[in-house]
């Protein structure tokens, strides 16, 4: 059973005033590096990092020594659907990957424990699995998508929406992660 990771970091960050892939946290660690590290620490391999806006600049922030594969969403201006589609396309090039855990670059309190909780699926069910973190009463990230869903999900994606409608329509299991973080993304610089 192999679970990869997909870190979505392609957007231009219009509300942030810069691409979120270029933001450095108060602790000095770039969000991009932190997101890739969290997925790796949770056991995801490979980790696909999807870049778009200012991709060349963002790529320099990725950590050395991790099994990170960059996929550039050339059509990133179309929104999250373009990023997610590109992440799934790159993940599909790894024949041994049975599922991916997907998360966003702008979740500074996401930790490896939440990723591991989402990824803990019985081996015989992983390729058909759909799981989504829940914080309080709201669904959030990370999300686990089994390989059996990748093609249908890619075909369903449009505009600036991710997998939420697909997950809801296909009965994704909601996994309580409220004890592990807030699930809140960051849209504005303080």
From TrEMBL:
SUPFAM superfamilies: Nucleotide-diphospho-sugar transferases. Residues 5-170 form the MobA-like NTP transferase domain. It comes from the Bacteria. CDD domains: GT_2_like_f. PANTHER family: MOLYBDENUM COFACTOR CYTIDYLYLTRANSFERASE. This is Nucleotidyltransferase family protein.
């Amino acid at each position: 059973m192999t679970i990869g990771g997909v870190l979505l970091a392609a957007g231009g960050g219009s509300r942030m005033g810069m691409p979120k892939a270029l933001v450095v946290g108060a602790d000095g660690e770039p969000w991009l590096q932190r997101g890739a590290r969290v997925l790796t620490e949770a056991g995801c391999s490979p980790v696909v990092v999807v870049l778009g806006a200012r991709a060349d600049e963002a790529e320099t922030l990725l950590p050395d020594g991790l099994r990170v594969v960059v996929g550039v969403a050339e059509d990133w201006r179309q929104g999250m659907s373009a990023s997610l589609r590109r992440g799934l396309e790159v993940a599909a090039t790894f024949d041994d990957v049975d599922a991916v855990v997907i998360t966003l670059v702008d979740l500074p309190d996401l930790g490896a424990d939440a990723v591991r909780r989402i990824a803990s699926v019985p081996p015989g069910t992983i390729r058909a699995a759909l799981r989504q973190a829940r914080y309080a009463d709201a669904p959030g990230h990370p999300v686990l998508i089994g390989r059996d869903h990748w093609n249908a999900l890619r075909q369903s994606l449009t505009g600036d929406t991710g997998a939420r409608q697909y997950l809801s329509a296909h009965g994704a299991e909601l996994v309580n992660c409220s004890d592990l973080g807030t699930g809140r993304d960051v849209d504005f610089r303080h």
